[in-house]
Amino acid sequence: MQLERKQDNQNAVNLAVDLVIFLIFLVAEAPRSSGLPAHEWLGIAIGAANLFILLVGLHVALHWQWLVNLLRRSRGTPEGARRIL
């Protein structure tokens, strides 16, 4: 029961991080929808603080165990290697 709750919390965190990354991308790539000042300030913030890189790094860190498990399952088996590709 507790493991399920922990997985649900992890899924909620993953979804929130992914949504933030997606929204930042949308605003940065569509200055007409958000306005040029918002687009420019967001660009400055991303460039100065490397916010986007930090969020992508967080995303990879949150999914690290999944990546490790995927690589372990596929090691040594041609079928597993085909699943990755």
Précis, in short:
With 85 residues, this protein is mostly helical.
Give the key terms:
elongated
Describe the structure in your own words.
With 85 residues, the chain is an all-alpha fold. The chain has one domain. It is 89% helix and 0% strand. The chain has helices at residues 2-29, 31-34, 36-49, 51-62, 64-74, 78-84. The model has no long low-confidence stretch (mean pLDDT 79).
Secondary-structure element pattern, one letter each = HHHHHH
Strand content range: under 5%
Number of domains: 1
Cα radius of gyration in angstroms: 18 Å
Low-pLDDT ranges: none
Cα shape: elongated
- Total beta strands: 0
Number of helical segments?
Answer: 6
**Biggest sheet, in brief?**
none
End-to-end Cα distance: 35 Å
Helix content: over 70%
Fold topology:
Blueprint: H1 2-29, H2 31-34, H3 36-49, H4 51-62, H5 64-74, H6 78-84
